[in-house]
Amino acid sequence: MAASSTFGGLPGSVFSAATDINDSGQVVGRSFADATQYAVEWSGGDVIDLGGLPGAVSSVADGINDPGQVVGVSVVGDRDYAVEWSGGSVITLEDLPGYTSSVAASINDVGVAVGESGGHAAEWSGGSVIDLGGLPGSSLSEAESINDSGQVVGFSVVDGVTYATEWGGGSIINLGGLPGVTFSGAESVNNLGQIVGESDGSTVVPEPSTWAMMLVGFAGLGFTGYRRAKAGGAT
């Protein structure tokens, strides 16, 4: 069995969770203390409060790339702002036109970030935001992960059903799920194009573009409110 380590949290924290790790071993996530959720980084044995936007009541770090750029969400009032922590600064990533809420979930080594804005899967690159769209008829979509080739995975909701979704090469692909199940969602993609996620009761590891073997148990849907629940407080 592999060894495990406890990171701890900020002073006075009652809850902490790690969400991502880069190849240098830098870890990011959240720490809940004084009735507030803080975006944090664990590096070199230290727990670092990454801060948030001015007036933020809560922040969560969701993703980190190998150069050390971090993305996540900073909540000011009742509004979610997608943010990037880079070079000691907290940078706001713009919303899609017409929307006033965004969350960044992942950033690749080229500095392209993905997440959602106004319930639409979104991509931030070179100072611009792009609506990635969703499967036909979708009412909600979110990008969860991006690899260094720009392949993006996440989920789309169509008629109340959540489908694992891949964006790449100008196409939006329904990745499907395990036989006989309804819900699925893709959580991460590596540079080989391998995708992992959940399929109504199981975690699955597909070959590129093909769902395959079952691994560990998973209960419940939990996709559509996931980011907001994380930003709103520990559960």
Provide keyphrases for this structure.
Methylamine Dehydrogenase, Chain H, 20 strands, globular, mainly beta, disordered C terminus, 235 residues, 4-stranded antiparallel sheet
Structure report:
The chain has one helix and 20 strands. It is an all-beta fold and 235 residues long. The strands form five sheets. Strands 1-2-3-4 form a four-stranded antiparallel β-sheet, with no helix packed on it. A four-stranded antiparallel β-sheet has the order 5-6-7-8, with helices on one face. Strand 7 and strand 8 (89-92) form a beta hairpin. The chain is globular and about 45 Å long.
Strand order of the largest sheet: 1-2-3-4
Biggest sheet features: 4 strands, antiparallel
CATH fold name, please? Methylamine Dehydrogenase, Chain H
Structural class by sheet pairing and helices:
mainly beta
Number of DSSP-assigned strands: 20
